[in-house]
Amino acid sequence: MSTVESDVVVIGAGAMGSAAAYALARRGVRVTAIDRFAPPHAHGSSHGRTRIIREAYFEHPAYVPLVRRAYQLWADLERETGRALFRRTGGLTLGAEDGVLVSGALRSAREHAVDHETLDAGEIRRRVPALAPPPNTVGVLEHRAGILFPERCVEALRAAARRRGAQLVIEERVLRWDASSGFVSVTTDRGMHRARRVILTAGAWLAQLAPGLGVPLVVERQAVHWITPRKHPERVGARHLPVTIWEYAPGCMFYVIPDVGDGLKAALHHQGATVEPDTPVAPVTHAEQAEVLALIGRYLNDAAGIVSESATCLYTNTPDGHFVIDAHPGVPEVIVASACSGHGFKFAPAIGEALADLALGTEPAVDLTPFRLARFGALTSNPRLHL
To answer: By the 8 A CB rule, do 21 and 166 touch?
Structure first.
């Protein structure tokens, strides 16, 4: 069995892994990125035709510097590859004023001076005729939000990494790794790789490849839908409808992404079933389609037509919903990233850059303290205590 020598091996080459490979290759590092499938693919979390990028980050203000860096790097990648990866549409977060979504978005927007407006229900209806907010709805409108095209993004990252000298290995399954020899040996179903550092960005398969992480990772099946409106399809096009996230009940959210050629995209955020990543993913049911159509019928005007297509993706959730970006406990040669919990894709180039920094022993440009494993050392009933 031959052994491939690299400076860094990246295990899992979807959005995060491809971004890490690109960031390392830009610095002249010998990097090999391995994926069990052939990215971009529909088996994990780096697909779906359109994804949201937003800056008034309701999850926590700590994400805002990271997403701002990601905006810069996506733009750099567009210039380098000549591919359109981002479309600006504006973004709305809607719900009760004291809800998790609106209060969190306003906190981030105010702490980081994000360009935004606060709208009442009447102003929302006037500006966005597709939306039908109840009277007490508050909206946070941010002007720089928009759409990323995930398959195109992953292709661009991989093409740019390859041009810089990265070795991209597809359809090769990593079986195990070992760091007892001073190097990290990675055994696959096709051979052996050896490197000074390994970056684990395996998404739903991370728990299998990092069993000593000490943090439970739960994989959640999500259903997404593309809807053909009953009438006025132009209202849900990208010229008229911002990307929108709606807290329709306390802690319960759905989102819509405007039609850019495939229909209005809509889905619940979380609320999916726990699954094992190696088990065939159950197809989307009529009941799941009906649940989303009912929300569209309630909160959007004339948009609850027919579901033209549905698909699934996987959320890999940490206990507190926040990322893990850190060295593996006890194995500093192995860097682990679970930039996950259903909101990670937009950050990919910034996280790839940070992972390259960690692997090379340099200080990341963005503060990663909130995403360290140490915060799980004393989990309490308030898992967000450390952020």
So the answer is: yes
